[in-house]
Design brief:
eight-stranded mixed β-sheet; flavoprotein; nine-stranded mixed β-sheet; 20 strands; binds flavin-adenine dinucleotide; MTOX; alpha+beta; D-Amino Acid Oxidase, Chain A, domain 2; globular; 379 residues; FAD/NAD(P)-binding domain
């Protein structure tokens, strides 16, 4: 049995764990990262080559966080020397938006934006179809989550962090010393002053441990729903120009962004938020049904004339939902729990890493809406 010691042990090296490792190691703490699979695997939520960065939030908490996240993206790019975030601009449209209110809220958070009629939007982006007013903000973009994980873990390793792939943690206990003891499936032990759970959809596996650290015999994790989310890549037709990142709310929520290097030709990734099957990490199968595929193909055919509606590639990932849609980011004694739930957390990853580091070092208190015991009154 090997015994590793560190100031902080991070369980899970997806976007959140890798960014936490970078932020903690850069503050001079010794860090060990334990990842059940190879770093960069495709079983969780952070694989693929494109995620959207958007600032079109009506909720002031998340709107403010997008600005802070942008600063941390810049820092991660500067320190790693890696270009991660590419500006594309972002469009929000559809009858389920109150674009005027959203525009004012974004402006109040310092996000310049333009309101366009359907006709103006259609003239500007003839590769998309509009039936309602649209809102455009130029500072939206797209980033590559796999390169982000590489950049963050490389910086962490350069600052002395130990990255332990194929190390599945099966147990977390408080030791009499107040340290945390983690045990791996391979029989290793990791002893740390603090442990951070960034296990994404696997967080329910640690329900008992989270309760134990909270000094509670009852579960303290909110009930989490895990869904498989599928996305499809569609080539731009010859002569068509790249399109912005977009969200279209018309009874359901469609979204899309440039595909990045997921496919070899200029393309857009398109998906339907919330149409994935409820699953668990044990039984999920990454199977995409004909019905799910056809629904997105028909959307592209109807709304995106710039795209060839035959999918070039498709992918499935896990989305973890809390009942209220808010993230989990809390600390009980030496245990920090961080889950960016509800399918929109990637854009915040470098900021979440910083917020995790603040909780570990005591530089900040948990955000009330992200606390485990927030209850119904937190909103
Ligand atoms: C298809 C899809 C599209 C998305 N699009 C966007 C978008 O455009 N914009 C946006 O902002 N967000 C988006 N999101 C959300 C975003 O990608 C997630 O919020 C983010 O990836 C979550 O990262 P994570 O590190 O929490 O989870 P994960 O990436 O799943 O990482 C958790 C890690 O923990 C490891 N682990 C679990 N259990 C153990 C254990 N016992 N021992 C050791 N390791 C363990 C896992 O192997 C995994 O590597 C999307 C999500 C999906 C699925």
């Amino acid at each position: 049995m090997t015994v590793h010691r560190a100031d902080v042990a991070i369980v899970g090296a997806g976007l959140m764990g890798s960014c936490a490792a970078w932020q903690l190691a850069s503050r001079g703490l010794s860090v060990a990262v334990l990842e059940a699979y190879e770093v960069g695997h495709d079983h969780g939520s952070s694989h693929g080559r494109s995620r959207s960065f958007r600032r079109a939030y009506a909720d002031p908490l998340y709107a403010a966080m997008t600005g802070l996240a942008l600063e941390q993206w810049q820092r991660l790019q500067d320190e790693s020397g890696t270009h991660l975030l590419t500006g594309t601009g972002g469009i929000d449209h559809g009858p389920d938006y109150d674009v005027e209110t959203l525009s004012s809220l974004m402006a109040a958070h310092g996000v310049p934006n333009e309101l366009l009629s359907a006709r103006e939007a259609g003239t500007r982006w003839p590769g998309m179809r509009f039936e309602t007013d649209a809102i455009f903000h130029a500072c939206a973009g797209v980033f590559d989550p796999e390169s982000t994980i590489v950049a963050a873990t490389s910086l962490a390793a350069a600052a002395g962090a130990t990255i332990l792939p194929t190390t599945r943690v099966i147990d977390a206990n408080m030791m009499p010393t107040g340290d945390v003891a983690l045990h791996s499936a391979g029989g290793d032990q990791i002893i740390a002053q603090f442990a951070v759970l960034t296990t994404g959809a696997w967080l329910p596996d640690f329900s008992s441990a989270v309760a134990e650290f909270a000094g509670n015999s009852e579960p303290v994790l909110p009930p989490l729903t895990i869904r498989q989310q599928q996305t499809f890549h569609f080539a731009l037709r010859p002569g068509e120009h790249a399109l912005p990142t977009f969200v279209h709310k018309n009874g359901r929520q469609m979204y899309g962004m440039p595909s990045g290097t997921d496919v070899a030709v200029p393309a857009m990734k398109v998906g339907c938020f919330h149409d994935g099957d409820v699953t668990t990490t044990e039984v999920r199968d990454q199977h995409i049904t004909d019905e799910q595929r056809q629904s997105v193909v028909e959307y592209v055919r109807d709304w995106m004339p710039a795209l060839d509606p035959t999918p070039l590639a498709e992918s499935s990932g896990l989305i973890t939902m809390t009942p209220d849609g808010d993230f989990i980011l809390d600390r009980n004694g030496p245990l920090v729990v961080a889950a960016t739930c509800s399918g929109h957390g990637a854009k915040f990853a470098p900021l979440i890493g910083s917020m995790i580091a603040d909780l570990v070092t005591g530089a900040a208190q948990p955000t009330p809406r992200f606390q485990l015991d927030r209850g119904a009154s937190a909103h």
